[in-house]
Amino acid sequence: MNDFLSLAAQSSPERLALITSDVEITYGELNQRVAVLSSRLDAAGIQAKDRVAVLLDRGLASGELVHALARLGAVIVPLNTRLTSTEMRWQIEQSDSRWVLSVLPAPLLEEAILLDDLPRMGESDQWLGSPLDLDADFGILFTSGTTGKPKGAVLTWGNIFWSATASAFRLGVLPSDRWLLTLPLYHIGGLAILFRSALYGTAVVLPDYPGDPFDLEQLWRKMHNADVTLVSLVPTMLYRLMDRYEKEDWPLSLRLILLGGAAATLKLLRAARDAYLPLALTYGLTEATSQVATTDPELTRLKPGTVGKPLQWLQVSIHDEDGQHLPAGEIGEVWVQGPMVMRGYLHQATGNDWLHTGDLGYLDDEGDLRIVQRRSDLIISGGENIYPAEIEAVIRQHPAVTDACVVGLPNLEWGQQVAAAITLRPDASLDEKSLLSFCQQHLASYKLPRQMVILDTLPRTSSGKVQRDKVIDQFSRN
């Protein structure tokens, strides 16, 4: 088949594709703009199957770039713009990216090529590219783990297609839909919206401040002024919006709030229910191309906390530590299988077998999934995945520190907050301010520990593993 944008331009060229405060672009117009950019990327030497690392915001140029790379058949490697340059270069090296492109006016990497610097020789608004192969790689998205380094999930175009189709079955699609892009494009939850909407022929509303991760007033104003019908939020965003604005002031155009990225407290869900918000709770992960299970608003109201049934074509199964299947009601590891599951991780064996998520949950008697705990040890704060082992490795480099354990503490606004328990060398001292200053030199801001406790020793099991539950208890005592 042709790429998703070409299909939308052929079937509904007059429909709106991208909406900003300054311009509304139809699919026909976007198709021509992307053809021009594709021809320039081609002239620069980017070829099909080339892995291209990209620094994106949520602006118009970013939307055009990802569609242009798709038309070329290049493999997109979106870099988290909140990472340090050292962290980004590690991902570029791991993914074997041949190119680094940036839409940011001040690139975060010296080697990044700005779009304005691409050659214009041979520029054409009729550049067609190659047919889209659903078995071909779409992108490599780095996702957090608990082993100290992120893993590169290799997603295919088939993963994107089936995920978009299954989501449409669950959430519904209206020709008038306008999805507000709130999540960054280095997250699958943000990136997928651009391609899903092209496949549906519906519009994406871009924020006024594309580089700002979350501007409360701008988001609120945009939902009203652009007649937004769908919006993706993490619990932190929803909490702040509900704290600031009255329930009767929410836009009437809004038909669905897709809430995911982190665990939502029952208190927040009940407050949303009392405000009559159209909340769809979702559970997903990068390795499954975003959504795995999603409720509709009615089920969210009736069974707060459940994430509903698996999406179309997806299977969810619960297993114990030995891999044995568990019956309804018993907690175990969530396994997922289906055409949305990634090809595999970089540098590891591939295959579309059962994905062992590491998340703990259970299926109730009606087949609805409840997540008890996201990946064991993983911290999710404000929708960002944070792996403790990386932070612990940095803290242990401090000359006063002998050992460290990083945990997530419950936080009403952020979901979880990073906290560090440390042990010190004899006669050494360290305060929270000094630790924070040290960590700022090595870690992105969202990974920084916000609380610290000093212990004589870290609690461990007989096999030497740190008992994180007992570490968490230490913070309640201090």
Automatic annotation (TrEMBL):
Keyword Chaperone included in the entry's annotation: no
Species of the source: Candidatus Desulfolinea nitratireducens
Keyword annotations: ATP-binding, Ligase, Menaquinone biosynthesis, Nucleotide-binding
Source species, domain of life: Bacteria
Molecular function (Gene Ontology), one example: ATP binding
Residue stretches making up the AMP-dependent synthetase/ligase domain: 8-346
Protein name as catalogued: 2-succinylbenzoate--CoA ligase
Pathway: Quinol/quinone metabolism; menaquinone biosynthesis; Quinol/quinone metabolism; 1,4-dihydroxy-2-naphthoate biosynthesis; 1,4-dihydroxy-2-naphthoate from chorismate: step 5/7
Record has Ligase as a keyword: yes
